Amino acid sequence: MNKTIYEEFGCTTKEELYQKIKLNDESVRQLKAFIDFSKASYKLTEPIKTNEDVLKYISGIPETDESKILFLNLRNIPVYLGTCNICDEASQRQMLLNGLNASGVKFFCINNPALEKHPNIQNFYSLVASCKLKLIDSIIVYEKNKCYFENSKQAYIFDENCNIKLNTKEFAKNKIQDLINYNEFTQYYCKQEIQGLNIFKDKEKINSLLKIAYQDSNYEVLGAIFTDKNGNVLDIENISYGNIKTVRENYIELSKHLLRNENIKGIIKFHNHPSGKSSPSSKDLSNIENNINYLDKIKIDLIDSYVIGKDGIFSIKSKYPELFTNKLINIHKPLFTFENNTAEKDTIKDIENLINSISESTGILDMDVRNLIDKNAELKMFEDNNTKYTFNVEDYGIRKYTDSQEEIYKKYSSISDFMENDCDLELDM
Fold first, then answer.
1. pLDDT per position as a tens digit, 180-210
2. Which of the 8 DSSP states describes residue 384?
3. How far apart are CA 318 and CA 314, in angstroms?
């Protein structure tokens, strides 16, 4: 008979298990390592192309009697990082089984310098070779940030920015997912960890928690993240449960949650696909209009709708913005929530230039212009015969508003493109 996840880790309730994790109890070391691995795995979709790509998986110097193995699949994408005791054949076999179950076909070996002289090292290499796994390179870690690739004869010194901690020890991924109440606990863990995060500033962290909680469910679950006016998460709840192919909307259940807290101003709907593919179905897309119509009546903003799969999180609003005919009226989205990459830095620079340009041409203080953009991301351009035109700094589109409808009038490739060609603004302050 299968154990529950609580029995496996010496607990009786999800609350007790969660507290053990938060207190770093030694008895749940493997479970915590698995959760940490799952969080990091949310971004692991890029293949290993160079030695430099491997550095992020080196989290300190391995012990003198342990070897770490980074397994890659046929496309050179990391699928598992395990640790085994070189003196314990059972530990070695379990780690290899985990790597093979994760579709590993090749590997990097990460070792302490002393391990190369260990009497059992050749037996370990023979065991690995018997599994028909291809050794790409052996990495000797001399210090926390210094290592040497033996086959390619390259040495590296690296900093903390290259270091993603993925030390899963000898934990078997396939084993924990078979435990009874596994999904119940991961969803409870998500509920505890997500509260207080901001859907704009902490989007990546929220997505990783959602993926941990729902990617392994064998049936579809429809849920909602509830936020206040600033996008801070107040709660997350499951709304309805379906089967392996579909889940039905339950507006009655959703209304119960919305009416319990008057501070709720916006929601993100989400559901999972047991197939593992996060691409939305035609029904998923058509439901957006129904959701907006329902939420508009109770003055709640639909911020986005997510589809969760093992391959990631699909944001329907990001890919199909035209479906979201509602403007965020109750949610005050912060203007600067960008990550540190070149394209987003350029966007920040363009927004700053736009603010300066508006301030100079209208005489309105920079601070007041910034507050206006912060409020709804749209700038009024002009009115003509009761028709209003606005520019949106998020999707670079000019919108046309009449008494009866809203439509996209013109689109630009960037804010700078808009400023160069059509920056004719009037601001109501």
1. 899 999 999 999 999 999 998 888 889 989 9
2. E
3. 8
> Which pLDDT tens digit goes with each residue over 56-98?
777 667 777 788 888 888 888 888 888 888 888 888 888 888 8
**CB 393, CB 358: distance < 8 Å:** no
**Tokens 């070779």 identify what position?**
129
Q: Which domains are present in the chain?
A: 5-176 (no CATH), 182-323 (3.40.140.10), 342-422 (no CATH)
Which residues are 259's β-sheet partners? Answer: none
Are 270 and 263 in contact by the 8 Å Cβ rule? The answer is no
Give pLDDT tens digits for 120-159. Answer: 777 887 888 888 888 899 898 887 678 888 888 888 876 6
CA dihedral 85, 87, 93, 94 (to 10 degrees): -40
Question: What does pTM read for this prediction?
Answer: 0.56
- Tokens coding 202: 């902490």
Average pLDDT, the chain: 79
Token pair, residue 262, equals: 């008057």
Structure tokens at 336: 């600067």
Kindly tell me the burial class for residue 79, based on how many C-beta atoms sit within 10 Å of its own C-beta (0-12, 13-18, 19 or more): buried
Tokens of 53: 């790509």
